[in-house]
């Protein structure tokens, strides 16, 4: 009871700490390069031990060239009477991300070419970017746009492009095996909640939990600007990932009210792809499954590009482009909720627990059945039902456990994974972990092995 | 007509001989070791040429140790007034199989801990064993148990444990090939019919039938005590089986009114697994199919343990644990019926006939079609329907046979088994045996081969 | 508009030329050997550059022996009053193909053994052959047969068997690759339209069309007498085909009102088998699919004999043996129609276009995504929907094309065929050819390759 209370307290503390991290990160004007990106990575460093990397502007990374850094100091749009129409200091979505500098007066008609709004969401400030083509512009609520009156407007954007580079970071949690599980999220959108901070915050607190447990696999937590950042990461660490990666997940849009939604890796049969479907089948996790597609998504598009084809899927909750607040100022903490993030971390931990136990196992007495009564695992009398008065013989009534033991031992032949064995038992892998702990402790089986074993 | 009469007579004789063997074997008090087991194997030797083997008590066979022999001479339970409650001489199920000796007076309350009965079958004497834990006890009808009155009871069990060994036997019928088909049944239950004698009796008479025919495969008929006996057999002959076994069947519970029921091997695609499903599909045999499971069953659990994984399935009719008389005194000849056993032998013979013919065949003229009219197998005129008056041209009307010949020749490429070719013909393998005999006699095809052949 | 008119004119001209070829070929009395066969091949030579081959009478070709040539000069059956019952000069179906000579008077009763007719089609003259057994006979409408009166009939067949050989021809259209596509049709039936001339006429005009285009594959157009001719062709060129054949089609019965019907090759997964099903799935061609069978059909029975097992299917429209005019005088140009043949050529050309483009492709920048905006293939701004006034940014609205480009690039990994990639795009291969032309022109992908490529 006290244990439970302690656990609840620590969970509540975790939610409070997630909330604090959110509040630290939300106001920052991030982009794919520049000071906001660096500030974000530094704040994350206060929670987990990040290593920082960069590629200089102008570097050719595969088919892409690292752009100059974008420095934004101020952006303000004033109306004919000097009234403020949009102010970067008030909301950093008001300026097109990567806007070139401007300080000019212009008529409303001309200004319209530089304004963005969403007619169907008249209160929302849209999020607009133009990374690779020089442009300038302001984003405002459509309602406000419709009220603009003719006249001279003054557009001021105090931005600058400078040589610098792109920044990205990772933290590696070593395990018994060199084989790695990748957790990747992105840190390049300004003040957006579900479609920005849900990923790195979940990732950070998942790291904290795994750090406290023994680990079979090594875990690599990666934080990058989306697309150009994962391409840069692959440019630097792609060969490494190709050799070591056992499984991987891109985390994005993990807030909101939906149940989880998993997008499979391009391979379609990666350890995570198979385990996800197993856990959903046995109702350990509720959620739906999406096929891989290169047409939309997040950094799994890069990890699963044909030259890498890594076993990386993507986990979301309220999926990008399916909710009104996507890419505009309605994507707030209130919409996302810290509680949803916390639940996401719980479910990710469950998936990882299952991956940790999966693998090939070997029955150490594979010739004929194991003599289970020697180990106290088999009834020592064969009598009808419960009619015997030797009712202390509890195992007589433990048919489910006994059936599972017999099934596990028969298929622990170095050729079936524990997930497949659980399927034979018609239950989830999580349900047979206690039996595996028992059988391992008695040296009746050995494992898990990553590769098939000959008996 | 006379042939048919002769055949019927010989079938009737076979049923009479099966009945006689049953009556010889039923009264014997068998166990997994000891005199009853040996007596059973000696009686079977009168029918088929068995070789006998044993492993000494104390031998470690894989994870199991061969127990001491159990000698049972007498067991009688008397009531307060000296009346007989249970008498081993009257029915050998009255004593727990492998009971330790006892000669003691005790109160009813204490005695209850040593009594077994089945409330739902108040007339039945249950069959109880305690091979690996020392115990003593009596099995009685529940009806009788409820009438027991308080007082002093006298329990006498005159049994003994002695060093000796475990006995098992086999008979090998050589064929043209070293490849073997295993037929295994068990001989360790006392007076039970369906769940004991149905197996060895079917096996014995199947042997007799196969002995009279030319054989492609070598047949190995094995008689063992269940579990410890098949483990002992594998301990001695496992490597041999691993090298030679083409297919195998454990025979158990082959009596009763049901149609056959086949439990597939662990491989799920053994020659017998595939042939059974083929014969059922084309209604040559009626029956149902069970998946492999290590959770219950008979000696296929040992043959299919992961270290061996032999291609051994199990054939039953009225399956263990699904009928009221299972493991009690209701499992009698009247329940089982000799006629059912006889029908089982017929159907097993049919399955074996199919396995004998299955394999890869080679068309000796595989380039272009065979010129079938040279062999009298193709019409020598191409004319519409039956309008030609050359109506002696019978082949015009033998479209079914001609279609099958063309199909057989096209797929006799050394890559398709005869079963697969029969599937192409949309008929059972048994239905095309006459055509194969014709084609083989004309050297248009050769075979069967056990492995794929290159043309 | 003028282009279209020109195209229509050329199509009309093509139909007229097909009609002319039909009229040249129809009256000839073809057989599996002899002058009619040679005359047919010579007429086809006026359209396409055939090479001629022969095997001498008596040659053993696999299991078959080349027969003597059959020369037929005249055949006339006269009634008791000298009236003409059947006259070869009037219709060459009146005489059994390969009739031996006769010049005899005989009673009606005896004559009946030499008459063939179809009671259910009383107006039709049946087509009857007896190639490998010496016979003589006349084929007449059943209506006429029923009117025959008793008396002496005079049967005259002026035929002859002479040593000579079997003739067959091919025309090879070289392509960039040595890999070949075979188009085979037969030229051995006398005056029959759908079940004779539809094949060689379609083949001839398909040749003409392919000759005018650049070709990836080499095309081999084969014209043979059915069965013995394709066996002879395989005897001479079988090894060649085994090495070079990528895909193949036997053309038969391509006239009539039905939609196309494709019989798969024996392999069941040849390039044509897979492409046919793909094009039918995406409604590029309407038609049905038949499984391979060696029981009936045309020369695919020889190409797909087990010793060759070539990737050859069969294309038909109104399939042999399913229409009343099959193998009798009702199989006329009016039944077949030249327009149907023309449509068959159009659809065959479409199938070949698809095969030409299919194969493995390689993305030249497979690490991370291709930077598509460099090539003008990606929007240079990321803004909500159509609200931006930069509406010249057409690519924003070309989501279908962009999705297909992303999908093609992701799966152009040297491991997926273009047909499989089209399936990923959920459209037909023909629909993505324009995109492939674009990507190839920009060197973003290379291909097609016939074999899998490592990146």
Features:
34% helix; 8-stranded mixed sheet; 4-stranded antiparallel sheet; 13 helices; 455 residues; elongated; 19 strands; homotrimer; alpha/beta; 22% strand
Topology (elements, then pairings):
Three copies of one chain form a homotrimer.
Chain A: H1 2-25, H2 35-45, E1 51-56, E2 60-61, E3 64-65, E4 69-78, E5 84-87, E6 102-107, H3 108-111, E7 115-116, E8 138-139, H4 142-146, E9 152-162, E10 165-173, E11 180-186, H5 193-211, E12 218-224, H6 228-244, E13 245-251, E14 260-263, H7 271-281, E15 287-290, H8 300-303, E16 312-316, H9 333-336, H10 338-357, E17 360-363, H11 399-411, E18 413-417, H12 418-425, H13 429-441, E19 445-449
Parallel strand pairs in A: 7-8, 11-12, 11-13, 13-16, 14-15
Antiparallel strand pairs in A: 1-10, 2-3, 4-5, 4-9, 6-9, 10-12, 14-16, 17-18, 17-19
Helix pairs in contact in A: 1-5, 1-10, 5-10, 11-12, 11-13
Summarize the structure.
Chain A has 455 residues and is an alpha/beta fold.
Distance between the termini of chain A: 46 Å
Shape of chain A: elongated
**Major beta sheet summary of chain A:** 8 strands, mixed
Largest binding interface between chains: A-B, 30 and 39 residues
Quaternary state of this entry equals: homotrimer
Structural class of chain A: alpha/beta
Portion in strands of chain A: 15-25%
Number of helices of chain A: 13
Query: Which stretches of chain A are poorly predicted, pLDDT < 50 over at least 5 residues?
Result: 386-397
Radius of gyration of chain A: 27 Å
Mean pLDDT, all residues of chain A: 95
Number of strands of chain A: 19
Proportion in helices of chain A: 25-40%
Spatial order of strands in the largest sheet of chain A: 1-10-12-11-13-16-14-15
